Amino acid sequence: MNTANFPWLTTIILLPIAAALLIPIIPDKDGKTVRWYSLIVGLIDFALIVYAFYTGYDFSNPDLQLFESYAWVPQLDLKWSVGADGLSMPLIILTGFITTLATLAAWPVTLKPRLFYFLLLAMYGGQIAVFAVQDMLLFFLVWELELIPVYLLLAIWGGKKRQYAATKFILYTAGGSLFILVGALTMAFYGDTVTFDMHSLALKDYALNFQLLLYGGFLIAYAVKLPIIPLHTWLPDAHGEATAPVHMLLAGILLKMGGYALIRMNAQMLPDAHAYFAPVLVILGVVNIIYAALTSFAQRNLKRKIAYSSISHMGFVTIGIASFTDLGLSGAVLQMVSHGLIGASLFFLVGATYDRTHTLMLDEMGGVGKRMQKIFAMFTTCSMASLALPGMSGFVAELMIFVGFATSDAYSSTFKVIVVFLMAVGVILTPIYLLSMLREIFYGKENEELVSHQKLIDAEPREVFIIACLLVPIIGIGFYPKLLTQIYDATTVQMTARLRDSVPTLAQKKEEAPQLSLNAPTIGN
């Protein structure tokens, strides 16, 4: 078999979905067979992702690779079209990694295990499809398909307010998705040719006002998923009611879909409009960082505290996207992957802590570190990663965004000074609320009532293994960022050059000093 022509991405997308359809006919009484089956499928699919990456992906090629295209509705140029470039490949790998670990994290699930693992596998394929499809209508369909498993996972296995959280999630995200459908149809029928192919759509000559209108609609849709304030309120409610594996999928993958789409659709396909909206993205990013950090500091519910922390960290992504520098855009992609790993680890540990204490209120904890030393050590390490401790992936990502925006020549010095100062304030607030959280959970005198009513056992090997798997790339990227940045350097450099050409002042500088841009260094070199 010629592996170069093998449909890797189609197989990777359809395998978990096809495997999920077999779950109802698997003989199983207590759910043990189904969970092993789901884990093996997840491992096989992740192995296929890694194999396809190492055998078919070229770091120096900025364009689509592993590309496949099959006719669907030829009259409308609708195709099953999938491919991966430097923007999507890291997120495809992240999706396979996090979803496989989430399947292992779901080991204690006993309520309707067949349906639970069916939804996990269906979500596996759907999320990879979001990052791989290259047809706008198909993108909308897989974006919508992914919402159904999340809704059911929240509504059936969530906490006391699960129906409210699930309903709010579906209303926000489905409402935002309408803008994707309207935008896709409008772009497809614009001009003389009808097409949904993303590459062809990006080459169309749209009027500026038309671009601005499309950009605004897409921004609303992706701001919900990222999330960007004020369209963020579904996330704390969803996290407040979700179980540990669903937490991992929400924080590790779902939020990254918004950041990915913002780069792919808004910045790459509508560069002229991006030049006008970029300052708005920067301001929204600053608001995310400061407001969410302050709100997280005030939360007494552990899940909601980490949820607002996630919102704060995603603010750096929007600033990096709007920086008009290679370093800033590269930092935005790195921040998405880094936060996916760190967010998944923190929310898994929150779930492990709740399983033992049966409370999420910080006021009811205290001193549990004496009896749960392994969980204490893992929670502390992952919190250090979240507050961007040097040697962790979060530090590298945020530093790249800081320097990328500070050195950008697309903004005035006054604007940059204000933004960098406010970003620094957010960075200072992060260790305050994270360290105070650790103090309230693990330090101090034991809560005698909690200890007397709950069996505070330490982490089991399965939990230690999951956190160890997440910490390896977090620390590895922290010490050697090129491990990840080399995957997407060529793509982000090419994309930044196009974005800079859309800004008249930057394009003029390029014409005046072409020799400077020819030898510009790239990230990781």
Write up what this structure looks like.
The chain is mainly alpha-helical. It is built from 21 helices and 2 strands. A two-stranded antiparallel sheet has the order 1-2. Strand 1 and strand 2 (78-84) form a beta hairpin. Helix 4 (113-132) runs antiparallel to helix 5.
Task: Summarize this entry quickly.
The protein has 525 residues and is mainly alpha-helical. The protein contains 21 helices and two strands.
Q: How many DSSP helices?
A: 21
Specify Rg, calculated over alpha carbons.
22 Å
Strand tally: 2
In the predicted model, the low-confidence regions spanning at least 5 consecutive residues are 515-525
Mean pLDDT: 90
Report strand order across the widest sheet.
1-2
Q: How does the overall form come out from the CA principal axes?
A: globular
* Main sheet: strands, sense, barrel: 2 strands, antiparallel
Helix percentage: over 70%
Strand content is: under 5%
**What is the chain-wise order of helices and strands?**
HHEEHHHHHHHHHHHHHHHHHHH
The class by helix and strand makeup works out as mainly alpha
C-alpha termini separation: 36 Å
List keywords for this structure.
mainly alpha, 73% helix, 525 residues, 21 helices, two-stranded antiparallel ribbon, disordered C terminus, 3% strand
Secondary-structure blueprint of this entry?
Layout: H1 8-22, H2 32-56, E1 65-73, E2 78-84, H3 89-105, H4 113-132, H5 136-157, H6 162-188, H7 198-203, H8 208-225, H9 234-241, H10 244-269, H11 271-298, H12 302-321, H13 326-357, H14 373-386, H15 393-406, H16 413-442, H17 448-453, H18 461-479, H19 482-501, H20 504-512, H21 514-518
Antiparallel strand pairs: 1-2
Helix pairs in contact: 1-2, 1-4, 2-3, 2-4, 3-4, 3-10, 3-13, 3-18, 4-5, 5-6, 6-8, 6-9, 8-10, 8-11, 9-12, 10-12, 10-13, 11-12, 11-16, 12-13, 12-15, 12-16, 13-14, 13-15, 13-18, 13-19, 14-16, 14-18, 15-18
